[in-house]
Amino acid sequence: MIRDVLLLVELQPACEFLTVCRDTFPDYDVATLKGHARLLEQSGFVQVVLIVEEGASFRELTWEGHEFVSLCRDPNCWKEAKDKIASIGGSASVEVLRQLLKQIVTSKISGG
């Protein structure tokens, strides 16, 4: 879900809020949406998060957010990273995920 939220926020015009709610992600409950919103804010990927009754509102990505989106934009790279993490137990920090994505993208660029 984090990747999907960041991709939506990236498309949002500057200084306009995007509200993410159950209509946007029907597979997630409101508490999960709010929790992920806080994680995105704490990780430094988004500048403004307002927790609202129906979910969360985002205004724009930070530099870090844009970098992360660049790394995970390709669905194949994202799937490869998620599969690798799943193979070692299913969870990893954002920094570990970022480093793994960098390795995957670098490998694809260098033809490896």
Structure notes:
- By secondary structure, this protein is mostly helical.
- The protein is 55% helix and 11% strand.
- The protein has 5 helices and 3 strands.
- Strands 1-3-2 form a 3-stranded antiparallel beta sheet, covered by helices on one side.
- Helix 1 (2-11) crosses helix 3 (63-72).
- The longest helix is centred in the C-terminal third of the chain and has 16 residues, at 94-109.
- The chain is globular, with a radius of gyration of 14 Å.
- 21% of the residues are buried.
Describe this protein with a few key phrases.
single chain, 112 residues, mainly alpha, three-stranded antiparallel sheet, 5 helices, 3 strands, globular
pLDDT < 50 runs, ≥5 residues:
none
**Relative strand content:** 5-15%
How would a crystallographer describe the biggest sheet? 3 strands, antiparallel
Structural class: mainly alpha
Give the strand tally. Answer: 3
Strand order in the largest sheet: 1-3-2
Overall 3D form: globular
Helical residues, percent = 55-70%
What's this model, at a glance?
55% of the residues lie in helices and 11% in strands. By secondary structure, it is mainly α. A hairpin with a 2-residue loop joins strand 2 and strand 3 (55-58).
SSE inventory with pairings:
Blueprint: H1 2-11, E1 18-21, H2 30-42, E2 49-52, E3 55-58, H3 63-72, H4 75-87, H5 94-109
Helix pairs in contact: 1-3, 4-5
